[in-house]
Design brief:
Elements (H helix, E strand, L loop, with lengths): L2 H4 L4 H25 L7 H23 L10 H17 L4 H18 L1
Length: about 120
């Protein structure tokens, strides 16, 4: 492959296809192939759920404790309070994720506007 072909207009699109789409799609294909054979209470699926939950919790903790952008200008107490209120709303209003997210966003936005 020569430098001229790498600098061609189509090269970034091919790179996105090969480096971005293909590696993630392989895991989707594997999931489709073995998904029907895995029981919901199997040890493997329990581990996968635990890892996925831990990753989401880590991202949320990072957003609350070490935010970037506009969120970094807000108080840590506001961020923790909004997350706690959203979690309480989630638990008390039928365990609907969207309810918890909306409540937390309303409190966070109100706190940012009033500050």
């Amino acid at each position: 492959m020569t430098w001229d072909s790498i600098s061609a207009w189509w090269w970034p699109y091919l790179f996105i296809l090969l480096a971005g789409w293909l590696p993630t799609d392989v895991w989707r294909w594997i999931g489709v192939l073995i998904g029907g054979r895995v029981r919901e209470d199997s040890d493997a699926l329990v581990i996968v759920r635990a890892v996925a939950t831990a990753l989401v919790a880590g991202v949320i903790a990072q957003l609350i404790l070490y935010p970037s952008g506009s969120l970094a200008e807000s108080s840590v107490f506001l961020r923790i309070g909004a997350a706690a209120a959203g979690f309480f709303a989630y638990l008390s209003l039928g365990r609907r994720v969207i309810v918890g997210v909306i409540v937390a966003e309303i409190i966070l936005i109100a706190g940012l506007v009033l500050a």
